[in-house]
């Protein structure tokens, strides 16, 4: 069932030990939507400038992504540039040019208003909340945030996530949000802030899912080579929420199996791992659903005991 | 079936954010043997000084550990002192007084010579090899090492592990030994050095087991509180090899199920997690096999999908 994704569509310049790209399609909304499109009909809400290339629109449209909510305005598309350390565990931002993204206010097309699933990519919390309010029939809603909002806009962020079913962040963000170093205690504090489900991403070490009465932990997929980790967390998000949308996961009406959440974490991990295999969104040009399901089964094999 | 453990028996002074102990029982052989004793008859080979306390001998004997190979010689017992960082991910060594351990040469009692299982704790590789040569009827043998031997005695270390079934080290040691940063590639290089099974410990992030045709990855157990991580890796080793000895795992004669190796990794993780719950070996004063099996089942629950 249909999913709406809100976030940034951008151009990235990236350098990893494997090479360099001066300008390639990026942005959280792009990665989430491409990843989710393998599971469910996906519609996006984002803004780009007049420099946005036809081939990039074509890539998204080719995956069946609904672009009614992709607004083009005068100016340049959001641009980000970064360089990774030799072991790729660190990256340094070289440039962040918000450009047209600086004035982004999500306006949802009428056709999106009654869709059941919403993923709010990492943008200003007040804008996430305003987008959510435009969708009165939601069955499952949640999103991402980052240290910038946790440190600088915490009351606004708390008001926003209060209305979410799930929050998907990394371990350092979870510790910062909860002001608690122990991850198990941090999770309980975050669950008390509103979301009934918390997913904590741990990069190469996998992910954890917490609910009041449930814990799931999965290790990361072991790649032969990490080519470019950019977007891996967003692809995790797309796989997680995309799979649940595909399954018709219905938390609001109590028609759900908690094991579906565990499998959604695995699909998230699978999508994050594929993302790292090539630069930027390149892997999605060839990736098939069959490869995705095969890697899901591989996860079963290397975690069974 | 009986297991022999060789390594250090020591006194430790430790400071963690939870408190401080000036002198408590420690050493790799101690932790490995205490942990393994929950699964199988365990015999140790180690050396202590005349200051070794009766209560510490009593603790080991009380767990059924065979102390025929525990030699007491004139002088003081090996002493180590360290302090952990606030998040306990780092520790600084304050003192390492080898004392009687400086002249340790493992001499196996005649009664040990035909026992089937051997774990070689982290001591000089040549001594590990000499100990192994005193046991001609081994069914499963392996051990641990550390950066000190990898950097300083590599040819000797390679000659030693060539004769092992399994090597159990942490991720940074694996990268160093293989001279390869990618862990999957490092594992393949190490498997070519002799051991048919490689277990890589990743601390709070769990562990991985590699064989030529097999991969198993398990996440770490999520503790409410890490009180003192000292000895956790050794307790992992004790749980891993102790469980396989209990099951009669027989690699040399081909009577084994590879799934037992996966379960052994889980039992290793379980034992490592219990170790962190109190200072030093304290947790083993009260720990029961029932608690161990319960935590094993808990691992099943939080990893199932």
If you had to describe this structure to a student in words, what would you say it looks like?
The structure is a homodimer of 305-residue chains. Chain A has 10 helices and 13 strands. Chain A is α/β, with parallel strands linked by helices and 305 residues long. Chain A has a 9-stranded mixed sheet, with helices on both faces. A 4-stranded mixed sheet of chain A has the order 3-2-6-7. Chain A starts with a strand and ends with a helix.
Task: Give the helix/strand layout.
The structure is a homodimer of 305-residue chains.
Chain A: E1 3-6, E2 10-16, E3 19-26, H1 28-36, E4 42-48, H2 54-62, E5 66-72, E6 78-84, E7 91-97, E8 117-120, H3 125-133, E9 140-143, H4 147-152, H5 154-161, E10 166-170, H6 171-178, H7 183-191, E11 197-201, E12 207-211, E13 214-218, H8 232-247, H9 258-275, H10 289-303
Parallel strand pairs in A: 1-4, 1-8, 2-6, 4-5, 8-9, 9-10, 10-11
Antiparallel strand pairs in A: 2-3, 6-7, 11-12, 12-13
Helix pairs in contact in A: 1-8, 3-5, 6-7, 8-9, 9-10
């Amino acid at each position: 069932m249909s999913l709406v994704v809100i976030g940034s569509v951008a151009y990235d310049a990236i350098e990893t030990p494997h090479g360099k790209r001066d300008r390639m399609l990026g942005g959280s909304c792009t990665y989430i939507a491409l990843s989710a499109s393998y599971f469910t009909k996906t519609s996006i809400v984002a803004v780009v400038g007049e420099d946005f290339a036809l081939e990039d629109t074509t890539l998204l449209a080719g995956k069946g992504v609904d672009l009614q909510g992709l607004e083009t305005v005068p100016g340049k598309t959001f641009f980000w540039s970064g360089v990774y350390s030799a072991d790729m565990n660190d990256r340094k931002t070289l440039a962040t040019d918000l450009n047209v993204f600086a004035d982004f206010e999500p306006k949802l097309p009428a056709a999106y208003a009654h869709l059941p699933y919403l993923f709010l990519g990492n943008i200003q919390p007040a804008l996430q909340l305003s987008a959510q309010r435009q969708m009165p029939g939601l069955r499952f809603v949640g999103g991402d945030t980052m240290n910038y909002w946790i440190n600088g806009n915490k009351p606004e962020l708390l008001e926003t996530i209060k209305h979410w079913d799930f929050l998907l962040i990394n371990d350092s963000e979870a510790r910062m949000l909860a002001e608690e170093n122990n991850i198990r205690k941090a999770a309980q504090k975050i669950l008390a802030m509103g979301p009934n489900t918390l997913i904590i991403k741990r990069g190469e070490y996998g992910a954890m899912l917490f609910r009041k009465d449930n814990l799931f932990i999965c290790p990361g997929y072991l790649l032969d080579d990490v080519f470019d980790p950019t977007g891996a967390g967003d692809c995790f998000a797309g796989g997680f929420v995309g799979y649940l949308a595909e399954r018709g996961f219905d938390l609001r009406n109590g028609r759900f199996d908690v094991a579906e959440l565990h499998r959604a974490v695995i699909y998230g991990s699978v999508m994050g791992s594929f993302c790292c295999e090539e630069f930027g969104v390149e892997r999605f040009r060839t990736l098939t659903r069959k490869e995705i399901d095969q890697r899901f089964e591989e996860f079963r094999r290397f975690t069974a005991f």
